[in-house]
Design brief:
By secondary structure, this protein is α/β, with parallel strands linked by helices. The chain has 24 helices and 33 strands. The protein binds adenosine-5'-diphosphate and zinc ion (2 copies). One zinc ion binds next to loops.
Length: 803
């Protein structure tokens, strides 16, 4: 037997399968999707088994040295998905595969066998390895074919489990569980327990109703019924309950209690949106659906109901949400409905925690995975539904290798599993909306808010007029008045400051000097904490200077409006207001984000001031005023999506107001009040915005009318970058069809990062079947320079960012 192995060397030369002999003692253990150690030149390296075959073209093959996984870490589906990703995103196969495996096991963790069988019941060949203990090292056991096949049998029938031993794992934690003894739980226990044992009867009835004979944690019983452990102990003594313990996974949400949530009656528009999704699920049909629902229309409830259907069919679901809206509030809605069926994949988890969640999915112990971008790789085997919330979010695109878009991966998996893919948004991306308009996706519309709540009134303030009046503050007169009014009424408000393309920079008023990063072509940002100037691209920092380094003037001034500066101004203008500020500085510590929001929810502050991280998902009933301090900062970025992003952001932010009984009001401050993004956001009019923006895109030849590929060339030597970029542009112009446009080369919007100069070329095309091959050839040609001279040529298919 031979293994075709994709080795862990990300280079063009090694981007293919290598054949290795499978030694006889490993034959039974080896499956595609497992990782192995193989000899490679003088070294020994890791690789994924891609295929197992019984022949090879080669006359001499070296043997596989070691098998690293007890079970495949990649399913057959994932192996194919990786091939597709490598092709579509122009990356190496190994890079695609590595991105699907949790980082905790990417190294070479030891594997431990645990047995549930008494020593006497162990097969003879395995006895010496356990030696009286219930654990043994996997690496020792799999040395011989006999022991390996005995192990395979034991794991097959569940008598043994194999697990990775992670370094940060500090012993296993056990949870105390109880379950109802005996097969058929009775409905009424008062007869058997006696009418005086009220609490005990209550426990038994509650458990049999909710769990039947399934085990439940002691904690959960106590939390739900407010009973002491003594009550449970009495039931254990009387043999009504059995006590057991369960290995606990590190559950980051373990301190929360999730009460069974009330399922609301669906509104008519929710029913209409849900029906086609349910039908596709029942008919096991691939069906991409775009759910366009205004903020507060109840999209999440549609997701929850669709998942209920999935679970009824004994299938599994993936829910993708953008990292910043993966708040505890969001997670709670899923946990409340589906409890322990849910795994959460979150970037704030430690790598051990992430692995635990992944393992629950891999072992089939959960049925729903909620998570950010990479959760799209959740290793489920029977997917019945994939959901992408806020499908327009740019963060679904990974900005580093492999540069995949989670939406594309989700659609691929939906096709593979023949199931619907539900993409939801109040402001669908124009790409998706265009596809829905052409019936490539099914369009589902929810134009009304739940309970007919009205959309908030949006007022646009012209800040140029304020400036003419002599108002230099961050607040227009009207906004300030409204804020005072809310303070008196004890209602809450959110102030939103768009930081993207907007920063607090430092400038000398005498000579115009601005502080910029010595390694990157970008101005430094002032951070009040520590009085430091920092580079947001490379992390470089320096203390704020006292005098200008160029002219030694002392007239150093801050420009732009950072959250810290606004907070200071607020404190001055409204000294009685309680303010919570949320930005990268106040939320960098783990859990800080959640603490601040909780505190705001409890009403401990009047004003929540923050960056785009507060634009999403907040659902607080007492918010009646939303202020957007500078709506147009993003409009001027060198990015064809600038208008779309502005419209999306304004819509999201205004969606925070008036979600409950109290009506909401939104104030948008801007220097370009006439811009169509701002006008249509004011009118809550997605369709008009989309029409106008589509016309713009058509005129300028941008997506969704054309596809784009961005090629960025970087090197320490500016001349080399220019020369290479010019050669690449030439080459592409010659090789691509005349219909394709090659723009550039030009200097990248950020001309230098980490001391490396950057140039870019852009390809615009409609139909270019040879493009991938041409790009791969180009990569191959520059391979040597990239490896030896540290030249980078990065290819971004359908880029989301142009920096
Ligand atoms: P969206 O995601 O579309 O902005 P949500 O799903 O957050 O909207 O719903 C907005 C609010 O309406 C939430 O508080 C939710 O609990 C509530 N809600 C959703 N569906 C219903 C319904 N059918 N009946 C009553 N309330 C609902
Ligand atoms: Zn100066
Ligand atoms: Zn820098």
């Amino acid at each position: 037997m031979y293994a075709k192995v994709i080795v862990d060397v990300a280079a063009a030369r090694t981007d293919k399968a290598f054949d290795y002999l499978i030694p006889e003692e490993l034959e039974e253990m080896v499956h595609p999707g497992m990782r192995v150690m193989v000899p490679f030149g003088p070294r020994s390296i890791q690789g994924f088994i891609w295929k197992v075959t019984d022949h090879t073209e080669l006359s001499r093959v070296k043997p596989v040295k070691e098998v690293l996984d007890p079970t495949p870490v990649l399913t057959g589906e994932m192996l194919e998905l990786g091939e597709w990703m490598a092709e579509e995103t122009v990356c190496f196969l190994i890079t695609a595969y590595q991105s699907m495996v949790p980082s905790a096991i990417r190294a070479k963790p030891k594997k431990i066998i645990r047995t549930n069988v008494e020593a006497a019941g162990l097969p003879e060949v395995l006895k010496p390895f356990f030696d009286g203990k219930d654990e043994a090292a996997w690496d020792d056991v799999v040395q011989t074919k006999e022991a390996a096949s005995a192990l395979k049998q034991m794991t097959g029938d569940g008598s043994m489990t194999v697990d990775y031993q992670l370094k940060d794992k500090t012993g296993k934690k056990m949870i105390r569980m109880v379950r109802i003894a005996g097969g058929n739980p009775e409905d009424e226990y008062s007869g058997t327990l006696g009418s005086k044992a009220v609490k005990q009867v209550q426990v038994m009835n509650w458990m049999s109703r909710h769990y039947g004979t399934k085990a439940v944690s002691v904690r959960e019983v106590q939390d739900n019924l407010q009973v002491t452990f003594g009550v449970l102990q009495a039931l254990i003594k009387k043999d009504f309950l059995l006590e057991e313990s369960l290995e606990s996974y590190r559950d980051p949400y373990e301190n929360r209690i999730f009460t069974e949530s009330q399922r609301p009656l669906l509104t008519n528009q929710q029913k209409e949106a849900l029906e086609p999704v349910q039908n596709a699920m029942r008919e096991q049909k691939y069906d991409p659906c775009l759910l366009h629902g205004v903020t507060g229309s109840g999209k999440t409830e549609v997701y929850l109901r669709a998942i209920e259907e999935v679970l009824k069919e004994e299938k599994e679901a993936i829910v993708l949400v953008p990292e910043i809206s993966l708040t505890p509030q969001m997670v709670e809605r899923f946990k409340a409905r589906f409890g322990s069926e849910v795994a959460v994949l979150h970037s704030a988890l430690s790598s051990g925690e992430k692995y635990d969640e992944w393992r629950k999915i891999h072992r089939g112990e959960v049925k729903v995975a909620v998570g950010a971008r990479s959760a799209v790789f959740a290793p489920f085997r029977h997917l019945g539904l994939l959901i992408i919330d806020e499908e327009h979010e740019g963060s679904y695109k990974q900005e580093d290798h492999p540069r995949y878009h989670a939406r594309q991966v989700a659609l691929w998996r939906g096709r593979w599993h023949s199931c619907p893919v539900l993409m939801g948004s109040a402001t669908p991306s124009l790409e998706s909306y265009a596809r829905a308009s052409k019936n490539v996706y099914r369009l589902l519309e929810m134009p009304h808010r739940v309970n007919e709540a009205v959309m908030p009134e949006v007022e646009v303030m012209d800040m140029r007029k304020e400036l003419k009046k002599g108002n230099r503050s961050a607040f227009s007169e009207q906004l300030l008045e409204k804020m005072q009014d809310r303070l008196e009424k004890k209602e809450q408000m959110v102030l939103f400051l768009n930081r993207r393309g907007y920063s607090t920079f430092v400038m000398c008023r005498s000579c115009g000097y601005t502080a910029s990063c010595p390694h990157c072509e970008i101005t430094l940002t002032y951070h009040h904490t520590g009085r430091q100037l920092k580079c947001h691209y490379c992390g470089y920092g320096e203390p704020l200077m006292q005098t200008c380094p160029d002219c030694h003037s002392e007239h150093i001034r801050f420009f732009g409006t950072g959250t810290q500066k606004v907070e200071e101004e607020l404190t001055r203008l409204l000294p009685d207001a309680g303010i919570i500020r949320m930005d990268v500085d106040t939320t960098s510590r783990k859990g800080a984000h959640e603490k601040l929001l909780d505190s705001f929810r409890r009403g401990e502050a009047d004003i929540l001031l923050g960056t785009q991280m507060i634009a999403k998902g907040l659902d607080f009933p007492k918010i009646t005023l939303v202020g957007v301090l500078a709506a147009d900062t993003m409009l001027h970025l060198p990015d064809f999506r600038a208008s779309e992003r502005t419209f999306q952001l304004l819509t999201q932010v205004s969606g925070r107001a008036g979600r409950a009984e109290l009506p909401g009001e939104v104030v948008v401050q801007t220097y370009t009040p006439e811009h169509y993004s701002i006008q249509h956001a004011k009118g809550h009019d997605y369709h008009s915005f989309a029409r106008e923006e589509m016309a713009q895109r058509k005129r300028a030849g941008y997506p969704p009318y054309y596809y784009l590929t961005l090629i960025t060339i970087a090197h320490e030597d500016a001349a080399k970058v220019m020369k290479t970029a010019a050669r690449i542009a030439d080459r592409l112009r010659k090789q691509l069809s005349p219909e394709a446009g090659v723009l550039g080369p030009t200097v990248s919007p950020i001309a230098r990062i980490k001391d490396r100069y950057r140039y870019q070329c852009m390809i615009k095309y409609k139909n270019e079947p040879e493009l991938i091959r041409i790009l791969n050839d180009m990569n191959a040609e520059y391979q040597k320079e990239m490896a030896e001279e540290n030249l980078t040529i990065s290819i971004d298919m359908e880029p989301q960012m142009f920096m």
